[in-house]
Every structure is written in C-alpha cells, then in structure tokens.
Amino acid sequence: MKNLILIKIGGSLITDKTKPYTTRPDVIKRIAKEIHEAIDEKDVNLVIGHGAGSFAHQSASKYQTQNGIINDESYRGIAVVENDAQRLNRIFVQALIDEGVEAVSFQPSAGAIAEDSRIVEWPLKALEALLEKGMIPVPYGDVLIDRKKGCCIASTEEVLNFLANKLKPEKIIIAGEVDGVFTADPHKDPKAKLIPEITKKNFEDVKKYLAGSRGTDVTGGMLHKVEEMMEIATDGFTSEIINVLKEGNLKKAILGKKVLGTVIRK
C-alpha cells in the first residue's frame, strides 16, 4: 500500500510505567490531536501500534507470561494479560475517536500465532480492508498462543516487524519519551550523547550502550526495540526513534519533516 507509515506509540509514553494501571491522559489526547492534524494535511495511511505500559507489563511480570506455560497459574495469566492489554487499547482508541480519527482496534491475540515468541501466522485481510477504506487499525503488544512455549508476549515491535514485511510501509516511526538512542540513559546521565544513526556497521558498538526501560518491561527495553528495528532494516525498511513528549514531533514525523532522533537503516 502506498503512503503507508507504521507508528509505534511507546507504553512509557502513554502510561506511567512506575505506577500500575496509570495512563497519561494529557499525553494521549495530544498524540491523538497531532495524528488528526497530520492526516488532515497529508494523504497518508497509518497503522498505529502501542505498547502495554503500566497495564499488561504488570500482569505479565506477575505470571511470567513471557516464559510460556510454566505452571497452572499460566492459564489465568493469559486471560489477565490479554484483558490488561485490551484495556489500554480501548483507552487509546477512544482518545483517537474523540479527536476525529477513524481508528479501529485490531487485536493480535484474536488471530496471530507465535513460535518461540515470533509471530509466524496472522491473517491480515481484515486489516488490509480497513486501510483500503481509509481507516486506521490500532494493534498493540499482546499475549499470544505459542506453538513451542504454550504462550508468549509479542511486543509491539514484534507486531510491527511482522506487519512491515507484509504491508511494505514507507517508514516506521517509534514514538518514545527520549530523543532517540543514547550512549547512556539521558534521564540519569546529563552527559549522554544522541546516536543519530544505527546501521549494521555500528550496531555491535551501539549495543553496549543499550539498557532496559524504566519501570516494569517484560519485552526487553531499548535493546529489544533496536534489535527489532535492525531486523526490519535488513529487509529494507527505515525506522526513526523520536521524542513525542515534545509537542509537534509526531505530526512533523508523519508529514515527513525533519525531527531530532535516531534513524535505523540497513
């Protein structure tokens, strides 16, 4: 599909990951507003995924869902994690609708199958039909049935990885709360320096700087995000990690304007 952009809205952006089940309503509303303004100005197709934030990461950590079926409580974990992930999705989709965006929730656990935490099967005809009608599908990080482990957590990056290979987007925007990838945690180290570009040539050097996210995150934090985007880059897709706590950045990125951040390419 032409003019297609995949967007990942970070869970740490729309929730407070240090406080269980706590959203950031003002941030969610502003993101929805910028998306609406961007699609009013540009003929563009969007798929907007979001992270689990302080919702499903809490329950997934409690039940160790990322490790598969490990005990009798694992089955309850699947149910609770799925419900938590969907709760946040409904909040985010509602905010988009309230701002005039024709967004539709697209639940990964209703159709995707994984094997060793990678999505291997996911019928997308319904998602493609939504895009053809000018609507915006909104998938999210979710718990999946896993052929090898019984169950797993599919991060939003994994979801976008699968979608990128099927839908062939123009680019991928990773919307977070920092200006890209740094040599240290910029929240803690004022000397941290932005890494403007990551390719296969410098990825091994960059990896030593990467650490986990703040708060509870069962999907591996920034290292996981960059690894997934590097995998997507090998298939020819460019990603950019930007700070969407800065007003206007998401709108600019959708419109193709220059935004401070880290570009990940082949």
Characterization of this structure:
This protein has 266 residues and is an alpha/beta fold. The protein has one domain: Acetylglutamate kinase-like (Carbamate kinase). It is built from nine helices and 14 strands. The protein has a six-stranded mixed β-sheet with strand order 2-1-9-13-14-12. Strands 5-4-7-8 form a four-stranded mixed β-sheet. A two-stranded parallel sheet has the order 3-6. Helix 2 packs across helix 4, helix 3 packs antiparallel against helix 4 and helix 6 packs parallel to helix 8. About 2% of the residues have low confidence.
Compute the average pLDDT: 93
Number of strands: 14
Strand content: 15-25%
Number of helices: 9
Distance between the termini: 21 Å
Query: Could you please say which CATH topology applies here?
Result: Carbamate kinase
Strand order of the largest sheet: 2-1-9-13-14-12
The helix/strand series, from N terminus to C terminus, equals EHHEHHEEEHEEEHEEEEHHEHE
Largest sheet: 6 strands, mixed
The name of the CATH architecture is 3-Layer(aba) Sandwich
Residue windows where pLDDT falls under 50 for at least 5 positions: 216-220
